[in-house]
Design a protein that fits this description.
The complex is a heterodimer of chains A (624) and B (340). Chain A has 624 residues and is α/β, with parallel strands linked by helices. Chain A has 21 helices and 23 strands. Chain A folds into 3 domains: 222 residues, 3-Layer(aba) Sandwich (Pyruvate-ferredoxin Oxidoreductase, domain 3); 187 residues, 3-Layer(aba) Sandwich (Rossmann fold); 105 residues, Rossmann fold, CATH 3.40.50. Chain A has a 7-stranded mixed sheet with strand order 11-10-12-13-15-14-21, with helices on both faces. Chain A has a 6-stranded mixed sheet with strand order 3-4-2-5-6-7, with helices on both faces. In chain A, α8 runs antiparallel to α9, α10 packs across α11 and α12 runs parallel beside α13. Chain B is of the alpha/beta class and 340 residues long. Chain B folds into 2 domains: 263 residues, Rossmann fold; 34 residues, no CATH class. Chain B contains 11 helices and 14 strands. In chain B, the strands form 3 sheets. An 8-stranded mixed sheet of chain B has the order 2-1-3-4-8-7-13-9, with helices on both faces. The mean pLDDT of chain B is 95. Classes of the chains: A alpha/beta (624), B alpha/beta (340). Chains A and B meet through β9, α10, α12, α13 and β17 of A and β2, α2, α4, α10 and α11 of B.
Chain lengths: 624, 340
């Protein structure tokens, strides 16, 4: 059913009404050229909304090219914000409002806009040249069907911006670059958000060094807001009430930020210096960038010459007593494979973060996919088991990283943390934990008063005891050749069999330290939806809604992919059907089928974008 | 990290000998290098527990197993990255990389390049035997054109890499060459390399008795060494020959051999490894067969801050400037809000 189009200029039959409409949640998408500053306005809108407070989730969506040709389809950059008075677990399926700064942005994003949604367009950019670049043969704004389907607000934002800055000393080009703040100001007015946090941001960012720019941005921001207030152009304003969120102290974090913080916290708890070594790769680079600013925490960061060296430096650091960590994305994981094998063989603690992106090869560098799960588990030659932990939301990256540090140090093993492009860039409020609530981390160090046996193990964890260069009397050699318990090279066939099994059993032993698996909903029923990683929000949202409607469906987010939790097999047995939605071609599904002999049903998506709640919901309903 | 540097008794060579059987082929040049390093370590004033020997893959890379210190036998070509991690973690350790021409210049060439240009304070011992030994005799990046091996039955066609020139190109702060049949010179060179603050790159002419026997004989066999080896000493003229009767002088930018007795005063070059300009170092690095003697010794030694000390300093500076990070700062960040 199409909703009635709301008041537009072209439809005088519908009388404009100036009222606040109460909404539980709203999804706004800002879209423009990659040089239009859409990421900045998206972030500002987010920061303002968390202060309301609203529950919030974001989804930045930008091209792989830094500056694709201006005005083209590949150059479109977008930022989606979902804010709500209720719990929010995804950035939203489809936007209720779209701000399109040029024809290309309209062409790319209009198909996603909800029927009857608010469409703000910058008519100033709809010239012949831009229309041609967006493959429009005629101006879509002249198309009456557009007005019929959406609440279209046409503003010549370019012109309004220039007018607002008539007496600004900025050059024309720089004036025009302020236009994103006009769009933001207008959106603030539409959704009744305060201007102050943004004004404060602009002042802090530019007032000292570029006072004219700061002044211009503030003026344009206000102009956008007042434009809404004083003109008849837009008739609808919306209110999203304060969210009733859990009490406590919050901060906004992105996935990569939370990851960096989790590493810092883990290292601090374990009293190890964090040595982070990375090589620039999208979408993992910002972890290295962030940690480079934490030197006063004692963090040592290295930008290595390549992906191989990055993990080599981290492993060397771990051997010498630091907590060695590296982060990369799929292509980098391929290059790190041999070193991960060495870390398995030498049984040294090491954390390897894979912020997954679309593959294979260079693939979709800025888009999300979950297609490196089997690589994480099996992407080495030989029997090379490692622990694998997956983060399930931007803020959850903190806990995933912390957990990985704990497992790596307590079990003397490499641990792979799987995040993805969607989690890494997405941001949400994070209920800041208390330091005291974070578990202690104890590394199994050798007793310097006794002769050192390099591969002697803790009977419970099977972790080998560590000795660090510089410790008197514990001199020893390690390496990638097979060794016996003493650490000496051994080509003995029985010994290789024993060591191979011990390495696998050690990883299996990690399961004893894992918390019980959380089942959302009943423990038995018709359908269990099993997901892992960043699909958590979409799956939980769909299942929550269906449960409220009385459907017998539950869901589980598998956080530990290796070892799998010991209670997972029994949980699966409680349901008639198992559905496994994944942003890949069925990797967890295959694991579950082979491990538990269940007839799990694969539901995949490989479009570089996360699942929509709607997609999961529809698939569940088909199976119920 | 606290490391203990006090050693009660003076160390001897025996303190660095492990119980492992040494498994190189009888007659391999590696034995002499091992022996020389075991003789060098006790004389460096470093406690045994503060040595770390790191290697990659290849015959030479078995080295750590035979040195009774901390040791890490890593993977092919990657020792420089592991060593960098160790040195960044703990700058007080004395870190030695043992590598070969294949490990260090072929599969690990990129890491070697960056180790050198970063000036990580470690010592690189590159055993150059101009062949892949452990894989049973394929040509290496330092094999001369025309080398016939199993993979090049009609002769290799790629131009060999000159390790010293490579090191110079990467602006290594210490570049030296020594030979596996002169233990005394090896020990001296290793000591000088250790004393250098910064990365030390030492090429060792090493004989592979099985797959490339006598590769260096044209330079260092008894009958050749007098007129084919030019031993370098800082501050001394470039003289060679049985009775040091020949010298090296410059004609324009090219070297030429002169009779020492008839050379004009001051005409023969005086060895100065500390020249900042790389021109002189390059002259030495490229000198050799068939027209010139091969320089042996410290070719270049200049000063530049080390990577590991710079990392350490940046951490200290950040702490001084911003105060040591706290849990509060870590968890709460620049701004939070409270929901009551």
């Amino acid at each position: 059913m199409r909703r009635l189009p709301v008041g537009t200029d072209s439809n005088p039959m519908i009388q404009p009404v100036r009222v606040f409409r109460e909404k539980k949640s709203v999804v706004v998408r800002f879209a423009g050229d990659s040089g239009d500053g859409m990421q900045i306005v998206g972030e500002r809108f987010t920061d303002t909304s968390v202060m309301v407070p609203n529950a919030i989730a974001t989804f930045p969506d930008f091209p792989a090219e830094i500056r694709a040709p201006i005005g083209t389809i590949p150059g479109v950059s977008a930022f989606q914000v979902h804010f709500s008075s209720e719990q929010v677990m995804t950035p939203g399926d489809e936007p209720d409002a779209l701000v399109a700064m040029n024809p290309a942005a309209l062409a790319v994003h209009l198909p996603d806009l909800a029927e009857g949604g608010l469409l703000v367009v910058n008519t100033g950019a709809f010239n012949e040249e831009n229309l041609k670049m967006a493959n429009y043969t005629s101006n879509p704004l002249d198309d009456p069907t557009l007005m019929a389907h959406y609440d279209v607000v046409k503003i010549d934002i370019s012109e309004m911006t220039q007018r607002a800055l008539q007496d600004s000393p900025l050059k024309m080009r720089d004036k025009l670059r302020c236009k994103n703040f006009f769009a933001l100001g207008f959106t603030y007015w539409t959704y009744s958000r305060p201007l102050e946090p943004t004004i404060q941001f602009i002042t802090e960012k530019w007032a000292k060094k570029l006072p004219d720019l700061a002044d211009a941005n503030i003026r344009v921001l206000k102009a956008g807001y007042f434009f809404g207030e004083t003109t008849e152009t837009s008739r609808n304003r919306y209110m999203v009430a304060r969210a009733d969120v859990e009490k406590g102290t919050y901060r906004k974090v992105s996935g990569n930020e939370a990851m960096a913080l989790g590493l810092l916290a883990g290292a601090r708890k374990a009293e190890r210096t964090l040595l982070f070594s990375g090589y620039p790769i999208t979408p993992a680079s910002s972890i290295l960038e962030m940690l480079a600013n934490y030197k006063h925490f004692g963090v040592k960061t290295v930008q290595a010459e390549d992906e191989i060296a990055a993990i080599g430096v981290a492993l060397g650091g771990s051997y010498a007593g630091c907590l060695g960590v590296t982060a990369t994305s799929g292509p980098g994981m391929c290059l790190k494979g041999e070193f991960i094998g060495l870390a398995v063989s030498t049984e040294l603690p090491l954390v390897i973060i894979n912020v997954q992106r679309g593959g294979p090869s260079t693939g979709l560098p800025t888009k999300a996919e979950q297609s490196d799960l089997l690589q994480a588990l099996y992407g080495r030659h030989g029997e090379g088991p490692v622990a694998v932990v997956a983060a399930n939301s931007p803020s959850d990256c903190f806990r995933a990283a912390f957990d990985a540090v704990r497992i790596a140090l307590e079990y003397s093993t490499p641990v792979i943390v799987l995040s993805d492009s969607y989690l890494s860039n997405g941001a949400e409020p994070w209920l800041v934990p208390d330091e005291a609530d974070l578990p202690e981390i104890h590394m199994p160090f050798a007793d310097p008063s006794k002769p050192y046996v390099a591969f002697a193990r803790n009977p419970e964890t099977l972790a080998r005891t560590q000795a660090i260069p510089g410790q008197v009397g514990l001199e020893h050699r390690i390496g990638g050749l097979e060794k016996d318990v003493t650490g000496f090279v051994s080509y003995d066939s029985e010994n290789h069999s024993v060591m191979s099994r011990l390495r696998a059993e050690k990883i299996e032993a990690v399961a004893k330290s894992l918390p019980p698996t959380v089942v959302r909903g009943e423990l038995t029923g018709k359908l269990l939806v099993v997901g892992w990683g960043g699909t958590h929000g979409a799956i939980s949202s769909a299942v929550n809604a269906l449960q409220a409607e009385g459907f017998p469906v539950s869901c589980v987010n598998v956080r530990y992919l290796n070892p799998l939790p010991s209670d997972l097999g029994d949980i699966l047995k409680g349901f008639d059907k198992i559905l496994v939605p994944e942003l890949n071609n069925g990797q967890l599904c295959m694991l579950l089928r082979s491990r538990y002999l269940v007839d799990a049903i694969h539901f995949g998506k490989m479009k570089g974008r996360p699942f929509k709640v709607k997609e999961i919901r529809e698939r569940i309903l088909e199976l119920l | 990290m606290a490391t203990q540097t006090v050693t009660p008794e003076p160390l001897t060579r025996k303190d660095f000998v492990t119980q492992n059987d040494v498994r190189w082929c009888p007659g391999c040049g590696d034995y002499a290098i091992l022996n020389s390093l075991q003789r060098t370590f006790p004389e460096l004033g470093v406690a045994r527990e503060n040595f770390v020997v790191v290697s990659g893959i290849g015959c030479s890379s078995r080295f750590p197993y035979y040195m009774d210190t901390y040791g890490f036998h890593s993977i092919h070509g990657r020792a420089p990255s592991v060593a960098t991690g160790i040195k960044v973690a703990n700058p007080e350790l004395s870190v030695w990389i043992v590598t070969g021409d294949g490990d260090g210049l072929s599969i690990g060439g990129n890491h070697m390049l960056h180790l050198l240009r970063r000036n990580v304070n470690v010592t690189v011992l590159l055993f150059n035997n101009r062949i892949y030994g452990l894989t049973k005799g394929q040509y290496s990046p330092t094999s001369p054109v025309g080398t016939r091996t199993k993979t090049t039955p009609t002769g290799s066609i790629d131009n060999p890499l000159n390790p010293l020139l490579f090191a110079l190109g990467a602006e290594s702060t210490f570049i030296a060459r020594t030979v596996d049949n002169n233990p005394k010179h090896m020990v001296e060179t290793f000591k000088a390399a250790h004393e250098h603050q910064g990365v030390s790159f030492v090429e060792i002419f090493q004989n592979c008795v099985i797959f490339n026997d006598s590769a260096w004989d044209p330079v260092y066999a008894k009958e050749n060494r007098d007129h084919q080896m030019l031993y370098l000493e800082a501050g001394k003229p470039l003289l060679f020959g049985k009775n040091k009767e020949k010298g090296i002088r410059l004609k324009g930018l090219t070297p030429e051999i002169v009779d020492a007795a008839t050379a004009a005063p001051g005409e023969i070059l005086i060895h100065d490894p500390e020249q900042a300009s790389p021109l002189y170092s390059q002259l030495l690095a490229t000198m050799g067969l068939p027209d010139f003697p091969t320089p042996i010794g410290v070719i270049r030694q200049i000063q530049r801050p080390t990577y590991d000390s710079l990392i350490h300093n940046q951490v200290q500076d950040a702490k001084a400037k911003r105060g040591t990070g706290t849990w509060q700062e870590l968890l709460h960040g620049p701004s939070t809000w409270t929901v009551a």
